[in-house]
Specification:
Layout (H helix, E strand, L loop, with lengths): L2 E5 L3 H13 L3 E5 L2 H10 L4 E4 L8 H9 L8 E5 L6 H7 L3 E3 L6 H13 L8
Parallel strand pairs: 1-2, 1-3, 3-4, 4-5
Helix pairs in contact: 2-3
């Protein structure tokens, strides 16, 4: 069972995604911002982080930078969930594995997209 951490400051949205991902067999944890997400990741292993970008205390950009900056498992998949599609290039450069526009997917479709990202092979280092 894959472990997902949903980082979202809107309780209604996080509740919907928690239900859908739980029904799909994921072990779900929730955090309201990047700071809480980092605390959760220090306490338990996570396979994928599904994060909003704009949140109080620590947003998604800073969360991705911190997770990819060292000290955290580099195998954790990071998927940004936001309607700020003009941020796609920036978050991918920072190290996110994917970007999903909230308005483009139903919660069930979101689960399917995250499963695809989890199943994607790791890029091989070029020699």
């Amino acid at each position: 069972m894959s472990k997902i951490l949903i980082v979202e400051d809107d309780p209604m949205i996080s509740e919907i995604y928690e239900k859908k991902f739980s029904e799909a067999g994921f072990e779900v944890s929730l955090a309201e911002n990047g700071k809480q997400a980092l605390e959760t990741i220090k306490m338990k292993s996570v396979d994928v982080v599904l994060s909003d970008l704009i949140m109080p205390e620590m947003g998604g950009f800073e969360l991705v930078k911190t997770l990819r900056g060292g000290g955290y498992d580099p195998k954790i998949k990071i998927v940004i969930l936001s309607n700020l599609v003009d941020s796609l290039e920036n978050v991918i450069k920072l190290g996110a594995n994917g970007f999903l526009a909230k308005s483009a997917f139903t919660p069930s479709e979101m689960v399917a997209e995250v499963k695809k990202i989890l199943d994607a092979p790791e890029p091989q280092a070029k020699e």
